[in-house]
Amino acid sequence: MSWRLGIKTVYYVKLDNELKELSVSELHQLIEDQVIYGNSYVYETLSKQWMPLNELPVFKALGMSFPQTSEKQVPPERSPIKMKTQVGHVLTDQSSFVSDDTHLQDYVKVFQTQFDILLDKNLELVDENIKLKVSKNELITQNEVTKLDYESKYQKQSKEIDVLTNKIEDGEAHIQSLLAENKILHEKINSSHREVNLKLEHSFQEYKELEHTLKLKNDKIEELQVEIENLLSDLKKEHLDKEKLNAEVENLREKNKILEQDEKYIAGQDKIKTQYNQIIAKKNEKIHLLLQQNEKIKDKFSEESKQVKSQFEQYQFSLKAEQEKVKKLNVVVLEERKKAQELEKLLEDQKSLEKKIASDQSSPLRNDKSVGKVVEINNNAIWEVRGLESAQDKKFTFLELKDLILSKEVDNNTFVRQESKWWKKIKDCPEFKINYFTKTVAGETKVFIERQNIRIPTHFRVTLTTEKAEFTGLCINLSKGGCFIEVNEFNAYDLRAEDEVVLKSESELFIEKGFSLKALIKAVIPEERGLGLQFIELNDSQTQALEDQVSHFLDLLDEAA
Q1: Is the separation of the CB atoms in 189 and 181 below 8 Å?
Q2: Alpha carbon of 484 to those of 32, 102, 398, 505, 530: distances in Å?
């Protein structure tokens, strides 16, 4: 408290560069008028020191705190007039202090103000508490209603869930039934397909037989037509005979006129007439039979011809469809043959290049590795698989291991290795990441890959710089897409796949063009101390320099040849 042991506390504040003596009420009035702030410095005579307004014991005891200004406040260097009072004594200089009653009135006024503020706050809190109680009761009522509504909805949803569960079970049973029916139908369809294929083959065979039969019948029809023509020719001849006979009858009639009186002649004439009528009747009957037979033959072969023609048109349509399939197959075969021819040409070019390099032992361009676009992959049984129970102590070829991958007996995380080499995961082996093709050479299946860029043999020293260290090595081969480096002090920890490196060299390829190359490590081969690099961020001049290097090597090969 500011009133201790009979000592009246007076406060000093620096206003307008002057120290003013204030009572607690005057000090409070300045605070309300915002002349001084919570961080303004005030001199308290009791403690005999400058301190921030909010730190004054009189305000801290009442729990009062005032807003502060953003300006930095500094306590005055000069202290006010030192108080010459001691504990238990009354100040002698009455002109420097106010009376005890004035001090008490000041404290009462401050207390009354603070009490009014606290009372207002308390009333506000009471009103707020009443509102909270009303809200609480409303929430309790609402909670009860919500609870009842939730229980009703829960029961309803439980019933719906039970119904849905039953429907799901029925649906699952129905699905199982449909799956079984689908399986049966699938088997029936497969059986029907097989039957249709058999019928198609049988029908095609019948078509061949019908075609042969049609040919025989056409031959027979031609024979019948010849026979009919012969019959018609005979009829014409008989008609001529009939005319000749009529001429003879006329002649006989003439003679009959002469021999009317001769009975023998008359009797002979009757006999001739009878014979003539018999001959005519037989000829007419024979002609009628031939005409009937001709009509029957025409009707019979007309119907058969229609049926055969219909069947022939159907089989002709089927044959046309088969011919279209054959044409498509021929196109595919031609494309495959073309690819095979290109492959053979590439293989011949590859062998030719290797022979040229091997023949020139003194050439600085000689290299033991493959040169060209086609590279053979070793397909001998050199691969071992770890953890495969069905093939312990067994070695696989490249193609056999690819079949295991396709059949999912092994996956990309399975460890494999070649003879006397390190174990690696399949996904870390570059051989299984690239497209390949096979070709039978001398009865043996060979596996090849086709490089995008031709690699040329090289032999120059390089410097590799990574984020961690610097290495030296030897560039073994080079293309416009990348190169292969043998590193002198190989460190598998600092040289990892997908790390970026900067490649520099004293070779003419680099010195003349005045640039270094950025590359990514795509393959790390510890047993060969080798790195496969892929160039990145090449500009036009760098790309042209690499292409010129490859072209220059090919020109040297041509000259050597």
Answers
A1: no
A2: 85, 101, 23, 14, 7
Does the structure show a pLDDT above 50 at 430?
Answer: yes
| Better-predicted residue by pLDDT, 287 or 50 | 50
Contacts of 378 (CB under 8 A, 6+ apart): 398, 447
pLDDT at 405: 87
CA distances from 52 to 60, 107, 248 (A): 11, 20, 173
Of 519 and 15, more confident: 519
On the question of pLDDT at 460 being above 70, the answer is yes
pTM tops 0.85: no
SS3 state at 66: coil
Backbone angles phi, psi at 523, to 5 degrees: -145, 135
Residue 442: its pLDDT value, please? Answer: 78
List, in sequence order, every beta strand (DSSP E) within 260-385: 372-377, 383-385
Q: 288's torsion region: left (phi>0), alpha (psi -120 to 50) or beta?
A: alpha
Mean pLDDT of the chain: 74
Do 506 and 494 meet the contact criterion of CB atoms below 8 Å apart? Answer: no
Instruction: Tell me the DSSP string of 218-274.
Output: HHHHHHHHHHHHHHHHHHHHHHHHHHHHHHHHHHHHHHHHHTTT-HHHHHHHHHHHH
Confidence of residue 85 (pLDDT cuts 50, 70, 90): very low
Question: 264 or 325: which carries more pLDDT confidence?
Answer: 325
Instruction: In whole angstroms, give the CA distance from residue 473 to residue 503.
Output: 10
* Per-residue model confidence (pLDDT) at position 498: 84
Domain boundaries, the chain: 11-129, 146-338, 360-560
Q: What is the DSSP letter of 426?
A: G
What dotted CATH number matches 360-560? 2.40.10.220
Is the distance from CB of 432 to CB of 402 less than 8 angstroms? yes
Largest CA distance in the chain: 218
What is the rounded distance in angstroms from the CA atom of residue 42 to the CA atom of residue 76? 9
What CA–CA distance (Å, rounded) separates 81 from 93?
Answer: 12
Tally of CB atoms within 10 A around 84: 10
User: Pairing between strand 470-478 and 444-465?
Assistant: antiparallel
How far apart (Å, rounded) are the C-alpha atoms in residues 56 and 50?
Answer: 10
